[in-house]
């Protein structure tokens, strides 16, 4: 079913109260009244809007082969309005209309919900413009002009007002429509749609009022389908609708078309501040100052019988990227029927119909002329916009009308294929293709899928709405999904369908399963955007919210039981199923190749284990930027020796313990170096606070004591001594190497011996980079470096092999950044440890930040979590200083970054800008960093636009 998130309207009992509430709180003061002019327009619109404000042009017309606006004016006209104007300029069949600008929305809120004083006049002029083209007049009882009122912000935004169609109908004009069309049934069908839509959207009267009336009428007359109703039936239903409206709101349904129009306009602007819209803006960082536009457009009718229809189409498949028209349409219907999903839509192309096995004709066979026109137009639009388009259209008695186009939302997989194919078709350049992929979206491709060898207990098959597979406990509500996620559980959100109110639950879930809705349903579109697996429209499943069960035939799964969904095939499986790592498509390789040609910033991986290193190489890492050796110490088999080492009283004891660790550590490095085949590997000496390794239970202490042959009491005492008040700022980092140089010596020996051995085995000797953590002064580094250099000399002598290595340091304390010139006299490379640098610059412990950081970001005290995206101003200033001062002393100083930030696209752009040599990030983020680095070099952000 062709649904859109922006218009996903809830008809289930559950959706209504929330929606009604959301709107009730934000209803514009004068919902159905004429505009009250503000005394002065003191709005402070955003810079680019100001020109329009100054000129006092609040309304931009389109239609008749031209328009005042164009695609580049989204800021002022909203996405829908700008593209309607563009299509009109292209000479495409667009019903004429006008756009009330986003500047009006801004002014409206800046002036206590009053409109600019010229607005009413300009709207009237807009109506005259439509009248001139259509030959119909708004409010004319004999020859009425009917319009739709459509909201349209800069970015498509669920939570905004739903579209109102057929506005301008009343008891008089409906008769004129009947006479002119010669079809009374059509006229009253349009009128009842209008009353229901307007009442719901503008007057806040819940849908069920109208649904109940219609159902009662149908059952009285023994009808099953809406299409069974005759003209007289609809006349009767309209009467009942109008009295229900009067009962509900105390006044009759507005009959004056101008009141209707201003009511609808007020509702659009009012919806900018409703709860759903505000939440959506917060989640997507859309500023309130953007405002929404309102589009008023002449109606065309898809409900004028069997030669009329309405539909949506993508110029390429938004799921796979395949170059083929993809979409659905409904004969004899209006826009909201497609949205409501009451009837099953038909395929557009004959090829798609054959594939789906549908017995209903495709648009290609049912409406060949309109189909041909659509084919011509979509080719034009793709060439013009140079991107895949998502279009809405209506066919009125055989004639095709375009109602919307925009760059279509797509999965990451589709985005890659489309970008690569558009470049190969020479519609865009390779650089543009690189710029178009949202780096973070690559995550979607790196998700696991179900192991093909796994046994599949398929209980249902729905639509493959968003790729990837996931397992988790079944939950039936978004609140519950969020709660369980907070407890560390993995959940699959199971719903009949989702709505914008479910966003938080979808965020929390591993995957989403719905029993209703199609490939373009809310669940599908939002899941694709989030990169989460989704199976939608699994119609054979029964969800019972009361009983908290999911039923498939005679299989009943309860809340909390495990289920697996495969968003690539649409399968729903009972239980947890084994997964495999993703295979990367040809387009992925192609595009990453283009990206690599463009970027200057190197990309390495943070990898501690051979498994990490293999993934890193597979994803194109150019080395290891951070190997944390402590992970090797925590191993079950080794921790004992590590504890002995830490708790030793004497250097001799310590050396004995270290001797046990040495071969293991060397073995780790040999494997790592072999995998990296001569690429650089940065190894950090032991960093974490010693107490992290200590035995805590009596039992553990006794075991270590026995192994060391010492008194457990004494050992317990020593363990207590090592406990710290603030370990993050305690006995850690280079402080360990300074207090116990033999630890650093053992590590250095392991590294160098491994380098020699791996070099012999692979013929590609690595250049190990030995990194000393938590340096604050040059003196510290000098002491540790001396030990490392001495060890290197020893190993060279023993092995007779020449060693190539470097000794450098992490810059992760503000003092180190400030003293970088001094430190660079000894350090051969720097690696900014931006996790610790952020902690120490802000004085915020990352592990304790959760309790207050949320408040900071919500209130805008911080723009975002500085541990996720680097604080470019503060922490960034230290990075700049460090680079600058370091390179002043050592011109070719190699500088990288190895915090979490290395995989965050905005931080990668920053690293490029300050001239780092490389970023290092977790292996799965390597492709993201490669792409982000390329985009930084191109000086472009990904062209992400709705
Ligand atoms: P959304 O943003 O929810 O997609 P739209 O404003 O695009 O809302 O309207 C939804 C649907 O309503 C359109 O796809 C189209 O089918 C129908 N519609 C809107 N305006 C008109 C119009 N002027 N004539 C005919 N149908 C219309
Ligand atoms: Mg639309
Ligand atoms: Mg650190």
Characterize the structure shown.
The protein is an alpha/beta fold. Among the domains are: 6-169 and 256-298, 2-Layer Sandwich (Dna Ligase, domain 1); 309-410, ATP-grasp fold, B domain (D-amino Acid Aminotransferase, Chain A, domain 1, 2-Layer Sandwich), CATH 3.30.470.20; 447-580, Glucose Oxidase, domain 1, CATH 3.50.30; 599-618 and 812-946, Phosphoenolpyruvate-binding domains (TIM Barrel). 45% of the residues lie in helices and 16% in strands. The chain contains 37 helices and 34 strands. Strands 15-25-24-17-18-19-20-16 form an eight-stranded mixed beta sheet. Strand 27, helix 22 and strand 28 (624-628) form a beta-alpha-beta unit. Helix 29 (741-762) crosses helix 30. It is elongated, with a radius of gyration of 33 Å. The two termini are 21 Å apart. The relative contact order is 0.07. Residues 1-33, 36-45 and 941-946 have low confidence and may be disordered. The structure holds adenosine-5'-diphosphate and magnesium ion (2 copies). Adenosine-5'-diphosphate (ADP) binds at residues 4, 6-7, 95, 148, 150, 163, 165, 297-300, 310, 335, 392, 394, 403-404. One magnesium ion (MG) binds next to loops.
What key phrases describe this protein's structure?
single chain; 946 residues; alpha/beta; Dna Ligase, domain 1; D-amino Acid Aminotransferase, Chain A, domain 1; Glucose Oxidase, domain 1; eight-stranded mixed beta sheet; eight-stranded parallel beta barrel; 16% strand; disordered N terminus; binds adenosine-5'-diphosphate; binds magnesium ion
